[in-house]
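2024-03-11 09:14:02 DEBUG pipeline.ingest accepted 1 chain
2024-03-11 09:14:02 DEBUG pipeline.ingest length=114
2024-03-11 09:14:03 DEBUG pipeline.predict start
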Amino acid sequence: MSLDTPRVPHDTSRTASRSARLSPDEARRRLDHARATRLTQLEALDETGQTADDHLMSAQRTAIQGVLAEIDAAFARIEDGSYGICLGCAQPVPPERLEILPYTRHCVACRATA
């Protein structure tokens, strides 16, 4: 940017909204979407006709079932009021991380050391 290029003011409305914690309703909506997506993935795996001996399919199914368990645990954290709090450091998980992984239990720093 040159010195004579006008500067565009920073849009603080978007930044301010991101710094707030997700509301329980928004968290539930994101978790419902994540659950529906994983259930659709499981259905697609079932429709492939692959045998149970297929190790890749089995690993995918196990991973999806693990995420579904994490989603259920996140719903429980919403109910007990601990949703959005890192289980490692007890600090709030950044809303941007919860937007990407609404079922996460940890902030990035704690997840990296777990």
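2024-03-11 09:14:41 DEBUG pipeline.report DSSP finds five helices and no strands in the chain.
2024-03-11 09:14:41 DEBUG pipeline.predict end
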